[in-house]
Write a structure and sequence with these properties.
By secondary structure, the chain is α+β, with helices and mostly antiparallel strands. The protein has 8 helices and 18 strands. It has helices at residues 2-14, 84-105, 113-120, 130-145, 155-160, 173-180, 212-226, 319-343; strands at residues 32-36, 62-70, 73-81, 126-127, 188-191, 196-199, 232-236, 239-243, 252-258, 261-271, 276-281, 286-289, 292-295, 311-316, 348-353, 359-363, 371-373, 381-385. The chain has a 9-stranded mixed β-sheet with strand order 2-3-7-8-11-14-15-16-18, with helices on one face. Strands 1-9-10-17 form a 4-stranded antiparallel β-sheet. A 3-stranded antiparallel β-sheet has the order 4-6-5, with helices on one face. Strand 9 and strand 10 (261-271) form a beta hairpin. It binds adenosine monophosphate and magnesium ion.
């Protein structure tokens, strides 16, 4: 927390001025956030039942926020409804999806399925729980498609830097070298048909932190749909999926967090029904030392925290695709990320490249009509389409 505040101050000082007032956030989320289409935060409505509906005119539909704490962070299930008590059980079941997937995929506990795999998979093949198997399968495909930029075997390095609990620090060269020798998805042998996993070597470990939230958001949305909910937005700390649309619009308006001032958003994009969005930013977790900041996304090809971009937002047909791609695009850096994003029809990206005084926002051409820079951010960001 102290480090985060210090970094934020430095960013302001470096620019020589306070950032001009922009829209402040009502809630702190990791990357993207809903900026419109919401009523006031209702909380869980059944705790506060309204008047007898027989005596009142029909209520207007509005977006009701059902918040929860999960995966070490906050999540909102936002349901468009005219009866928030009636939709509360669906929200609760969506929350339960988060808890279930956290207990399977967390790297912060010794009791998850991923923790078990990390304990036993170097000793011989082990059968993987079906949902974890699904995410590992996608991760291995993504490793190949991203030219090695997405690699779930970064775990030893992520842990060494303190990004999986423990004090955050810049490790010694020798420690880095030792951890780096364990990194590389070629050391992971996964058979999707039999759901068996084996690691080549003792010490190899996987971290699904770069993709699991996206999977969880899709599953929560699926649960809402199964409960008959037609219009909702699932938001797990900036990993979102839009089911339908808000009552007053045919799309959701989503703010993208300013990577240099996480209290503000610098731009907004439209999210259509059936689309996901997610943002990876350097501000989420980092180590600051010697005038430099090192973010929590590791370049598996060098073993060092990725440089070159400070924020990556992805819009895609599923939250899984979004979360999956925001991490490797961040690793690939401004040039290769643009190439890769253009190459993939399913992925549309917004990349923020740091500059001296003014940052460049690379917006993929298909988003042109859906992307708006906030007026207060115009002197701090230069938008280029690719
Ligand atoms: P995200 O929140 O999607 O940006 O994912 C960040 C998380 O992904 C980190 O906190 C790590 O747990 C994990 N991670 C870091 N670097 C990589 C990488 N190169 N490939 C896959 N996962 C990564
Ligand atoms: Mg990700």
């Amino acid at each position: 927390m102290v480090q985060r505040a210090a970094w934020w101050k430095r960013a302001v000082v470096r620019r020589g001025a306070r950032r001009p007032a922009g829209p402040a956030l009502a809630v702190l989320l990791a990357g993207a956030l809903v900026v419109a289409g919401l009523g006031a935060r209702d909380g869980v409505a059944e705790q506060n039942p309204g008047p007898d509906r027989a005596d009142t005119p029909a209520a207007a539909r509005r977006s009701v926020v059902y918040p929860t704490r999960t995966m070490g962070t906050y999540a909102d299930v936002i349901i468009v409804t005219d009866d928030s008590a009636a939709t509360a059980p669906a929200a609760r079941r969506a929350h339960a999806v988060f808890s279930r997937l956290d207990s399977l995929m967390s790297n912060w506990t010794s009791t998850s399925e991923v923790a078990r795999l990390n304990r036993v998979a170097a000793q011989g093949p082990t059968t993987v729980q079906p949902e974890v198997a699904k995410v590992i399968e996608v991760s291995m495909r993504l490793w190949r498609e991203s030219e090695g930029a997405f690699d779930i075997t970064v775990e030893p390095l992520v842990r060494l830097w303190g990004f999986l609990g423990g004090p955050k620090r810049v490790p010694a060269e020798a420690e880095m070298k030792a951890a780096f020798q364990l990194v590389g998805a070629q050391r992971v042998h996964f058979d999707a048909d039999t759901r068996t996993l084996r690691f080549d070597q003792e010490g190899v470990k996987i971290d699904l932190g770069g993709i699991a939230k996206g999977y969880a958001v899709d599953e929560a949305a699926r649960s809402l749909k199964a409960d008959g909910v037609t219009d909702a937005l699932v938001d797990l700390t900036g990993n979102m999926f839009a089911l339908g649309h808000p009552a007053d619009s045919d799309h959701w308006r989503i703010g993208i967090r300013d990577p240099r001032d996480r209290m503000r958003y610098f731009a907004r994009v439209h999210l259509d029904p059936g689309q996901g969005i997610s943002t990876s930013g350097k501000y989420e977790q980092f180590v600051a030392q010697g005038g430099r900041t090192y973010g929590h996304i590791i370049d598996p090809r060098t073993g060092w925290p990725a440089e070159g971009l400070i924020s990556v937002t992805v819009i895609a047909p599923t939250a899984l695709d979004c979360d999956a791609w925001d991490t490797p695009l961040f690793v690939l850096g401004p040039v290769d990320a643009r190439r890769k994003a253009k190459e993939r029809e399913d992925v549309a990206a917004v990349l923020v490249q740091p500059g001296a005084g003014v940052d460049t926002v690379w917006v993929e051409a298909p988003l042109k009509d859906r992307f708006t820079l906030e007026p207060a951010a115009r002197q701090l960001f230069c938008v280029k389409f690719f």
